[in-house]
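Reopening closed ticket. The problem is back. First fold of the pair:
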Amino acid sequence: MDRELVRLAQRGDQEAFAVLARTNADWLFAVAHRMLRDFGQAEDAVQQTLANAWRELPRLRDPDRFEAWLRRLLVRVCYVESRRARRYANVRALSADEPAHGDDQLSLADRDQLERGFRRLPPEQRAILVLHHYLGLAPVEIADALGIPAGTARSRLHYAHRAMRAALEADERRVAIGGSRA
């Protein structure tokens, strides 16, 4: 990340911030979509994150930490968006005609099963799994992104894996006894 761009944006330079926003928009959207599982909600989350970033940027102490700080803002916005969507029961399944970025090696049935399991997780566990498995962050980096201790990040990652396993096993049991997968 260009430290000087961040410093210019901190001083109110809108063009510098626009460059930062364009530079980071793709990965912001990818992470938001992985967490929220909805393109419209992901777009809203990215827009809200960038609006929050513009407003809060003057308070960023270390310009070298811009990406980690931006990740933290995004995760918080995704938490709010996810809770809002649950309240209004506006959750839609990832349709088969939407691209499954990065999941090409999985069969459609596997992706559907993972999608169902992932949707059963609370937003906090989704965030941990996305940061670890999609962005490839280590628990220490996850801790930094979420503003939590490293031990807490490791613990949450462990419990998120357990919850995902339990959700997948429950789905398999339901199919095995003749239930439907929906």
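Second fold of the pair, where the issue appears:
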Amino acid sequence: MKAIFNADDFGYSKGVNLGILEAYKYGVLRSTTIMPGMPGFIHAIGLSLENPGLRIGVHLTLTTGKSVGGVYKTITDGDGNFLRLTELERRAKMGEIDLAEVESEYEAQIQKVLATGVKPDHFDSHHHTHNLPGIVTVFLKLAKKYGVKVRIYDQALLSGEFADVKTTGVFNDTFFDENATLTELQRVLSSCGEDSIEIMCHPAYVDNFLLNSSSYTTKRAYELDVLTSPDTFNFIAERGIELSSFSDLPVYQR
């Protein structure tokens, strides 16, 4: 089985970036997704260019910080700040989001990453907002356009027009908060019946920006400890699990 430990939020802040880098250099992490609109973006790009083995995806964002593309009528306020998650969810469910604005913003974020010379190998999103009604179609359209794999909740959507957009056999998001433990990782890996799995994680060193802007803070340091623990390496080695990234993941067929 191939296991992809993917760190969300690369580019969020320097502390987050350095935690992700440590999880890559001294832990089981091989993959991360970057946030083009956040303060640590340039720092993250520098680290990625120095560490080409750390594969990069785009963590498409509609709920945190300022937009990359400017001010929009339905997805930002008048200053270009993204809406709160609850408001974005409400508008998406009510059909009040201009999906052309979402596509424009997603394109701006993707192009900002490509302009640095980094070629992303997969797309996901902050707060999983790419799974919202309407937005998910825009997300899959761009994944197909750029030829990248995805994280997706409903794999049934990867059919018809989007049949050539691929993902892992399983996506797991339970290694989080109180469940950021070795025991939880062991449970997840032991119970996976597919040939590939993505495990979402958020390792970080906690800095002031993170403390002042995120609801998920100190437990990120707990995640980092587990991801770099010899016990984690031993468990993975004993079971013949291969640490992977989306770049070297075979096309998954259900």
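Update: turned out to be a display glitch only; the data is intact. The CA atoms of residues 110 and 248 lie 21 Å apart. The chain is about 35% helix and 15% strand. Please close again.
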